[in-house]
Design goal:
By secondary structure, the protein is an alpha/beta fold. The chain is about 45% helix and about 15% strand. It has 15 helices and 14 strands. The protein has an eight-stranded mixed β-sheet, with helices on both faces. Helix 4 runs parallel beside helix 5 and helix 12 packs across helix 14. The mean pLDDT is about 95.
Length: about 400
């Protein structure tokens, strides 16, 4: 691969962002080693990889860099400021991320240019892509970016998203639903690259028999936020209780709705049936997949437009041989072939969910071929080695183009 590539992260490593760590490691295993930059804190090293952490005290030098770059690149300032003035900021978090990303760009742009990068890749469409856009405008180094469901649906997208999409050489996404949304926002199809998130761990289930002879073991994993549809899961639990189906539902994760969901569960009389077990590390979560029969994902479209593409937990549940029942909203059901490797169901109509779970409880052997197919599909579609090869090929094209343009 020609040229030097920088990967820009908001914070690296972050415990919840498992797939980006897997991808970085897989790229390294294939001989592609980008320079890792963490804008907001992070660690100095991860898995033998040096991480360049931005020192926030450098923002004091903006009093020097702002007038200098405004003199050298006035058009870049005008263009970015005009976009910021043309629409309100979606929320306070995006305000902070936008100006930290722009501050990073102003302070570090000369260093990036001096070090001879051929490409900048922003892993996320928010702060990292803002930084990449700013550096690109100041130095003419091209950039690519990731854009996922959170980035393009929530509050209509990031404050500078339209300009980022206009300027990015490539936009990587992981689901068809997000790709369609990005296309609707004006990005031509040639610059949109659908590359799935990858798994690097293949758990081995000893048996497809039910985990417990006395009850059905149900599992859900995710942040306790509106778009995950956990209130629908509690309604489902009530319906299963009314049917007399013996079950235990464990919900792994934490988030702002935790106390409200716990109170609602108690109000519904689900004590002893539904358990909020809090956040778990990767190892304990992997074990939980193998200790359950059925994985539930009841995602919905939140009031602010936010929704999931393909949550990491669905391919992970498939690879662990769980029977996967997933919402048909947004991109979650893209991970399965309905009725072949899992089931795509409407979280607004819980009757079919109840029917399937009752059938599975009474005749689990009927679902063994489907669960085996789920394992095979996960290994074929979500192998991180495949993901890394696709990403490396796209970066190779971009760096060659950048190299040819310079020379």
């Amino acid at each position: 691969m020609s040229g030097k590539v920088a990967f820009l992260y908001a914070t690296f490593p972050r415990p919840t962002e498992t797939f980006v760590r897997r991808e970085l490691k897989a790229l390294g295993d294939q001989g592609f080693n980008p320079v890792v930059h963490s804008i907001w804190k992070g660690k100095a090293q991860w898995d033998g990889i040096r991480i360049r952490r931005f020192r926030l005290f450098k923002l004091w030098t903006l009093c020097f860099w702002i007038p200098l770059w405004a003199f050298l690149k006035p058009r870049a300032f005008v263009e970015i400021l005009s976009v910021l003035w043309s629409r309100p900021c979606p929320n306070l978090q995006n305000w902070n991320e936008t100006f930290l990303g722009l501050g990073f760009a102003l302070v570090e742009a000369s260093t990036f240019k001096r070090e001879g990068y051929s490409l900048l890749h922003a892993v996320w469409a928010t702060m990292p892509a803002t930084a990449a856009l700013g550096i690109s405008k100041l130095t003419d180094i091209p950039f690519s970016m990731g854009a996922h469901a959170y980035d393009v649906f929530r509050h209509g997208g990031d404050w500078l998203l339209s300009l980022k999409f206009e300027e990015a050489s490539l936009v990587r996404t992981t689901s068809y639903s997000s790709a369609r949304r990005i296309s609707q926002m004006g990005v031509d199809s040639g610059r949109i690259k659908l590359i799935r998130r990858g798994l690097g761990h293949w758990p081995k289930r000893d048996s497809f028999e039910r985990v417990s002879a006395s009850r059905l073991e149900l599992l859900s994993v995710g942040r306790l936020v509106e778009k995950k549809g956990y209130f629908q899961q509690l309604e489902l639990a009530c319906l299963l209780e009314a049917e007399g189906l013996p079950f235990r539902l464990r919900i792994i994760g934490s988030g702002p709705l935790e106390r409200l969901l716990e109170r609602e569960s108690q109000r519904m009389g689900l004590a002893g049936k539904v358990f909020f077990v809090g956040a778990r590390n990767e190892e304990r979560t992997r074990a939980a997949f193998l200790e359950c029969d059925v994985f539930l994902f009841t995602g919905v479209v939140a009031k602010n437009g936010d929704r999931d593409g393909i949550p990491n937990v669905i391919p992970e549940a498939l690879s662990a041989g769980c029977l996967v029942l997933t919402s048909n909203k947004a991109g979650a059901s893209e991970a399965i072939e309905d009725g072949v490797s899992g089931y795509s169901l409407d979280p607004g109509n819980l009757g079919p969910w109840v029917s399937l779970l009752c059938e599975f409880h009474s005749s689990p052997e009927k679902f063994m071929p489907l669960r085996e197919a789920a394992c095979a599909r996960a290994r074929e579609t979500f192998d991180v080695r495949r993901t890394a090869r696709e990403m490396r090929a796209e970066f190779g094209k971009l760096t060659k183009r950048s190299w040819a343009t310079r020379w």
